[in-house]
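task queued by scheduler; priority normal; single chain, no ligands, no partner chains; default sampling; output format set to structure tokens
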Amino acid sequence: MAINIKNTKKKPSPDIQSLQSDAQCWHKIKILLFDLRNLDERMDSKARLDLVTDRSYISAPYFTPSEIKAIKSFVPDGGESTLEQLILSALETKLERRKKKQLANGDYRVCASHDLAPVFEKAFGVRPKDLAKDKKFVKALTKDGLVLR
């Protein structure tokens, strides 16, 4: 029986340059990162994050289906794990730590801004202070939300 080589090859995952070259997608990635860090300070950030339906946070309203697929399959820093795998692993690790601590209030939820933002920031090479200081970005975000004009 012959093996069809075309069907066994994996499609290469996008690299950081290909994500950055899609201006609309990169803009939305930066908004997600900004929102994760500003969840408590900005109602628009909270409103967008409240609409997320995927536990990796890589979902609508931020991204289209094709963007979701590309971002989830992105392998940061030439590693072996996809971004989605890194995020889900980080979530599991944080949840296990919280369970072990037996929080007095019984709340074992993972905090997106404290637990996930650093994973995204490292993967994309974005420093949170740089986003916060980018007045043009913050102004555009405040005015236009997820739309890049």
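post-processing summary
- The mean pLDDT is 83.
- The CA atoms of residues 72 and 85 lie 8 Å apart.
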